[in-house]
Amino acid sequence: MGQFNGESLILREVYRFGNEPVIVLGTLHWDILRLYRDLVQGLRKVARQAQDEGLLFASLGIDSWAVDYGLLDSSGSLLGNPVHYRDRRTAGVMERITRSLGAKALFERTGIQFLSFNTLYQLVAMQESKNPQLEHAETLLMIPDLLGYFLTGERSSEFTNSTTTQLINVHTGEWDWAILKRLSVPERIFTPIHAPGQRVMPIRGDVANELGTAETRLISVASHDTASAVAAVPSLSRHFAYISSGTWSLLGTEVDHPLLTEETFSQGFTNEGGVGGRYRLLKNIMGLWLLQELQREWQDQGQLFSWQTLIDQAAASPDFFCLIDPDDSRFLSPGAMTVRIQQFCRETRQPVPESIGEYVRAVLESLALKYRWVLEHLERLLGYSVEGIHVVGGGSQNVLLCQWTADACQRPVFAGPVEASATGNLLVQLAASGEVNGIEQARELVRRSFPVRKYESKDAQKWDVAYHRFKKIIMKL
Q1: Active-site residue 459, yes or no?
Q2: Which of 31, 225, 325, 327 is catalytic?
């Protein structure tokens, strides 16, 4: 719940809920109706709180993760639970498609990084398996657009999340009909694309009655959570790098136009839509998913560790005991993360971690070193050095990771805001309502509203030695 008093933005957590995927008949799904129920329950709490405080619940916005979608039939009914991007149905699809279309040609049309779970490959997997849902579908909606449809009854596609599908033509800003036709993906399922803040939609009457508010409107914000997070980066300069740190770490910068060079393609960078007509030149890194899976594994074994306990044990463990490549494909799927880390270490002839602290430290140090690897390539693409790294999102609270990122990259790190996606979401709502004028004014508002902690780099020589070793490890596999 965000409140703007004309000078600063006040952000309050009203309701928080889990988002647990469900395996049914061997397929990993999102429990979308449960998510919608929790969404409505949270909005109901916001409406009551606003009423109690004499505030107007003026608008709401929805952002979420990328690439996943729901399919509606001709009556507007959901054809099935959306499939999770970590499901194995896309295994081998990307390789077949890039051989068929040509990887370079596909990148030059879309500007998007090649990830096996991109929407493009999910749809081809459905088409190849003759999934009847695709045959009967009339509309495809990305997750935030789907939830917005449940609230408003309106169907549309927001730009920032749509770009992650690898189905938007980067030159026209529209769906790439030629790719869709070539791959026999039905063109009828795609709705018109609009920019963040461009659509304001009334809530359905029955939903408004359930929420207890008739005035609220849904504003289509930057619906990809990273696009919202980047909008909330409190940078004074255009020459900055950001790490949107959560389940994934997305490291990049803002550019005015997509960068479609040979090196951008060969280094696996992506050009995703941003706020204000800008693009997010970035690379996906596996992120804190590794720790989340370790924590879940230990919990299943009856060992309950808080995040602070994990951080404390990592801090007390020997430095650079072993290192991993966070982006190794074996780490993508859920389950048995300790076994996979052990396997990686044996294959690279390193000591195998045994204690909790050694596992956690290996993940955090490896993430910091991977950030340096990606940052070096990013700066070569840009032709200049960035002045600092802004870490936003939940990972900005991880003191060890922020300090080690500063040490590894030898740049100052500015950590915060924590709830960056929610903040950027609110900023677009304010802009659409005329309360904020442009991205620079929005970022100035963030600087006034939220604390930012600065980390200075140290121990450069030690981290240089570790980085040299890290590069050898990841380049051998």
Answers
A1: no
A2: 225
